[in-house]
Amino acid sequence: MATTTTAEPTRRDFLYIATGSVAAVGAAAALWPLIDQMNPSSAVLALASIEIDLTPIQVGQSVTFKFRGHPLFVRRRSPAEIATAKAVPVSELIDPIARNLNLPDDAPATDANRETHPEWLVVSGVCTHLGCTPTAYEGDFGGWLCHCHGSQYDVAGRVRKGPAPQNLEIPVYSFLSPTRVKVG
Questions:
Q1: Rg value, the chain, Cα
Q2: Which residues neighbour 107 within 8 Å (Cβ) at sequence distance 6 or greater?
Q3: Which terminus of the chain faces fewer neighbouring Cβ atoms within 10 Å, N or C?
Q4: What pLDDT does residue 46 have?
């Protein structure tokens, strides 16, 4: 004959378990909105990546798009601009690092490391000094000029005249087709 030494659950045990379960569910329901508000909003997620149609951009034209709340420059460089950018030795640059998120962090700032296709340049439109927006086709190097403090960038988005400490950042991007690019 088998005997058990455990006591039968009492009504008090049931109340303890039921109260604990309700408290756990209530705590989870109270914490969920606090945790969920830390996730990016749907508006931010919608801007996490953009697709750009390159067909309307003419040779020598720079177009500004909005990417993650900041300007993004897409420039269709002319053969002369490409040749000028390729002729600049990295040793003459203020920032010798490519700042291309598609490459390793220590990639040199050659023109080839600043673009995927030589004709197209995709760079962030935020000056690396204090975050102003440079304007295209100005300055001594034909790229961008930041009017806030005078930083100048060349046609590859490399800083050539300070006070900006770094080149314009190249975001993560890829070509979906020869005329369509996905940024982000």
A1: 28
A2: 97, 98, 100, 113
A3: N
A4: 67
Cα 90 from Cα 43, distance rounded (Å): 40
Q: Report pTM.
A: 0.70
Quickly state the pLDDT bin for 3 (edges 50, 70, 90).
low
Long-range pairs for 150-156: beta carbons < 8 A, 24 or more residues apart: 151/127, 154/84, 154/85, 154/88, 155/75, 155/77, 155/81, 155/82, 155/84, 155/85, 155/121, 156/85, 156/88, 156/109, 156/111, 156/114, 156/115, 156/121
Which tokens go with 98?
């490519």
Other beta carbons within 10 Å of 147:
13
Residue tagged active-site, from 70, 117, 129, 149: 149
pLDDT in tens, 55-64: 999 998 999 9
Instruction: Tell me the C-alpha distance between 35 and 3, whole Å.
Output: 50
Contact 171/72 with Cβ under 8 angstroms? Answer: yes
**Among candidate residues 104, 105, 111, the one with its CA nearest the CA of residue 143:** 111
Question: Is there a catalytic annotation at residue 147?
Answer: no
pLDDT in tens, 73-87: 999 999 998 888 888
